[in-house]
Write a structure and sequence with these properties.
Largest interface: A-B, 80 and 54 residues
Number of domains of chain A: 3
Helix content of chain B: 40-55%
Order of helices and strands of chain A: HHHEHHEEHHHEEEHHHH
Structural class of chain A: alpha+beta
Largest sheet of chain B: 3 strands, antiparallel
Radius of gyration of chain B: 21 Å
Distance between the termini of chain B: 73 Å
Largest sheet of chain A: 5 strands, antiparallel
Strand content of chain A: 15-25%
Structural class of chain B: alpha+beta
Helix content of chain A: 25-40%
Number of domains of chain B: 1
Radius of gyration of chain A: 27 Å
Number of helices of chain A: 12
Strand content of chain B: 25-35%
Distance between the termini of chain A: 31 Å
Number of strands of chain A: 6
Shape of chain A: globular
Strand order of the largest sheet of chain B: 1-2-3
Number of strands of chain B: 3
Shape of chain B: extended
Oligomer: heterodimer
Chain lengths: 369, 157
């Protein structure tokens, strides 16, 4: 019985008109520009790009503006846009060892090649609201110091020289990296597919899971080998040219987590690793990703699977916030018919019980409910 | 031309790669200014695009291991043909079609003996210098945030 399937059109149109009005807000204030969002709300833009799995700062800023700052809505918008574009190809893997480093810190080595570079960090700020930002107070130019030209060496390479750490994750030569956007998910899944899912996974969800491993739910004894943020070159093999050319640079955040060591009768003890790589500047996300990546390697490393963060199907199936919000938020859409059916069922059950009770009272008083 | 490519692929390749890489970093202002300076405007035929699509960006597990798909990036590409028959290609991150069309024209002009020096002087060299200056500035700003640890010496002179 479909009764009220039509009739919302005018309401919907007016609701969208109202949305546009509320999005614009007070007309006596200037509208924010895309450039302002890119420049001044850059980390919001980065989060949208990372979780939409689409690198484009301007479009991500547009999505932030259009969604009134609702991050998941912005991510949804950018994901939807992505589906309208053809894919030209696959890049040569980015080389984070050649990154133009803007920040790099290590919690495992104090003095290491390249040094501890704090970069534009919130760390060591006092988290006091800054009244100078209430107005447009002029801001100092950054300090400068001659660069040493020293290569910012990977921490994993330092440990690898002594054989103290497992190698970067390898697959057989003929393994083609899986792609979640092309093939349906299947479990168990390879580490390549898991990393793709985690790279686009919800920051809050991964943060909570990473935190849970620290609190003992799948503990993996992590050290931040290093976190680095900076720009890497994106290269594409161009068929017409027969070689790869640079398309430009993108900013990424990488985290090398060094985890509890493992040895066996055959192999001497070695540190294990978790890896995080995220579009834009987001070390919280990259660190959470590397904790969860490590936790999800439980089976591979012969550990007991006891905690949510180690459960591949649980983690990967629930890490995508566009999917999650779609299913949660669909509950508010009309379920009139479903609910009518349930209502009729409950009414019938109640009246059956009622009838049975009356019958019981007059006849056999023992079989209630 | 094709024969020359086969005889000396590496020199040609390195030059072309460098030109393409620098053109991908060109700003609209830089391209427009160089185009305005061209005495003979080229007769250009569009072959493909400019069109916007995606490139799947890959990373490597652990930084240097097996590749995995990190996420996509918007890319705009264009192919143009000069009257001489030289084809120019451009692939640039982002969605700016006009910028990429101009980059493809300059890629073609760079391959022509008559215009290579012009493209080099009016566009590639200035872009290279700008990128180097920007990188240097960033590196120096970052270097200023490098921690200089010092040890408190006690009971010892």
């Amino acid at each position: 019985m479909y009764v009220a399937v039509k009739g919302g059109e005018a309401a919907i149109n007016n609701a969208h008109r109202l949305l546009a009005d509320r999005r614009r807000g007070d007309r006596s204030l200037p509208a924010v520009t895309i450039e302002q969002i890119v420049e001044q709300l850059g980390l919001a833009v980065d989060r949208v790009m990372a979780e939409a799995s689409l690198y484009d700062r301007s479009l991500a800023a547009l999505a932030v503006r259009q969604s009134r700052g609702d991050m998941i809505e912005a991510i949804f918008l950018l994901r939807a846009y992505r589906t309208t574009l053809p894919r030209f190809g696959t890049s040569v893997p980015v080389d984070t060892n050649k990154m133009k480093v803007e920040r790099r810190v290590s919690a495992t080595y104090k003095d290491l090649p390249g040094g501890q570079l704090l970069g534009p960090t919130f760390d060591y700020t006092h988290r006091l609201l800054d009244p100078s930002l209430l107005t447009d107070t002029p801001v100092e130019e950054p300090a400068r110091r001659d660069e040493t030209g020293e290569h910012v060496m990977r921490v994993s390479d330092i440990l690898a020289h002594e054989g103290l750490i497992e190698a970067d994750g390898e697959f057989p030569e003929d393994h083609e990296a899986g792609d979640l956007t092309r093939e349906p998910m299947e479990f168990p899944m390879g580490r390549d597919l898991r990393l793709q899912a985690l790279a686009r996974g919800d920051e809050g969800f991964l943060l909570a899971l990473g935190y849970s491993t620290q609190r003992g739910y799948g503990r993996n004894h992590p050290f931040v080998g290093e976190v680095r943020i900076g720009e890497v070159e994106v290269e594409l093999e161009v068929a017409e040219l027969g070689f790869s050319v640079s398309l430009g640079r993108i900013r990424v955040t990488e985290c090398q987590m060094v985890n509890q060591f493992k040895g066996s009768s055959k192999a001497p003890p070695q540190f294990t690793r978790g890896y995080g790589l995220v579009f834009g500047q987001s070390e919280r996300k990259a660190m959470s990703m590397s904790l969860v990546d490590r936790a999800l390697r439980a089976e591979e490393l012969g550990e007991d699977i006891t905690a949510p963060a180690q459960d591949e199907e649980f983690v990967i199936s629930h890490s995508d916030n566009v999917q999650a919000t779609g299913f949660v938020e669909h509950l508010k859409l009309p379920h009139y018919v479903d609910f009518q059916a349930e209502l009729a069922l409950v009414r019938k059950m109640r009246s059956d019980i009622e009838k049975a009770r009356k019958g019981d009272r007059s006849e056999m008083p023992e079989a209630a409910e | 031309m094709d024969l020359a490519k086969q005889i000396e692929p590496t020199a040609e390749m390195t030059g072309r790669r460098r030109a393409a890489g620098l053109l991908s970093r060109a700003s609209m202002d830089e391209l427009n200014a160089a185009f305005a300076k061209l005495t003979d405007k080229p007769d250009v035929k569009p072959v493909r695009g400019p069109e916007t699509g995606l490139v799947m960006v890959r990373g490597r597990i652990g930084g240097g291991g097996a590749p995995f798909n990190l996420g996509e990036a918007t890319v705009t590409r264009a192919t143009v043909l000069l009257a001489s028959g030289t084809a120019g290609h451009a692939h640039v991150l982002g969605t700016d079609k006009e910028k990429v069309r101009l980059a493809a024209i300059f890629d073609a002009l760079w391959q022509e003996a008559a215009t290579q020096d012009f493209v080099e002087a009016a566009l590639l060299t200035p872009i290279e210098a700008r990128i180097a200056a920007e990188d240097k500035q960033k590196a120096e700003e970052t270097a200023a945030t490098r921690v200089d640890f010092f040890t408190m010496v006690r009971g010892d002179d």
